[in-house]
Sequence to fold (303 residues):
Amino acid sequence: MSADLMSAENAGERLAEFLAQGRVTLLTGAGVSTDSGIPDYRGPETARRARNPVRFQQFVTDSEWRQRYWSRSYLGWPNIRDKIPNACHHALQQLDQQGRVQGLITQNVDRLHAKAGHGGIELHGALAEVTCLSCGSLRPREQVQEQLRALNPDFQAKVLEWAPDGDAELPTQATAGFRVVSCTCGGHLKPHVVFFGESVPRDKVEQAYGWVEQSQGLLVVGSSLTVFSGFRFVKRAQACGIPVAILTLGKTRGDPLAALKLEAPAGPALAQAVQLLAGSGPRGDSESGAPESPPSPGANPGR
Ligand SMILES: [Zn+2]
Fold:
């Protein structure tokens, strides 16, 4: 753990100051979900557990890789499906309710922001959906799970380790004989997530850039910004003169570009900021409406 760890109170105050300057775009990573029990690929605690996940080309071209993926995912999926949002997801959703968020960009594929009632761009897709590589149709992951169960009623293997992408580490040889599901069109099914070696869809990237450019700040939470898919938004913010704040444990690739770097427990720090900001409107509005009632749909709150 870093020697720079701040108290949640201190970090919350600094965050509140940053957020009081105007609407922010949120960029979240695996660190947001660790308190929900989903391990982090690249966080300070888990760097030693770096794995070698299936790559897109392997999945598309090699039936053994698909068999391996789906057998592991068959065991790993319920572990992701049943996770619930934590204090961090709830606090970020509350910031949005306060009118302080331009948009939410997440690198996570666990759907936990959506479960907390907070919609946004799922940069890397979501494990809750499955796509067909031939016809492009989407279906719920749970539906595929039922089909896999019916095809493999006796499949059991000793899980060595749970992985954050809904994958499970299995002993080699354990996946032979596992029967995979195909689309009704005959195409191969793939989880609707961006694999290593695959690109984030361009329309998502453009929409996210638009949010960043319309914001008065970019707040990164729980991401080491190791992969370019997230780091590019920090670079775009910097290029536009938009200040960047990073709330993440451990060093990140964005630290040299950040106006504010906070190493503190994210959930309590964000909850503290939400509390400090409650009652003062975005962009310095005075509290004129009833503070407890959310704005009704269609109503344009007075400025
Ligand atoms: Zn299909």
Residues 63-81 form the longest helix (19 residues). The chain has one domain: 8-281. Confidence is low (pLDDT under 50) at residues 44-50, 284-303. The radius of gyration is 21 Å.
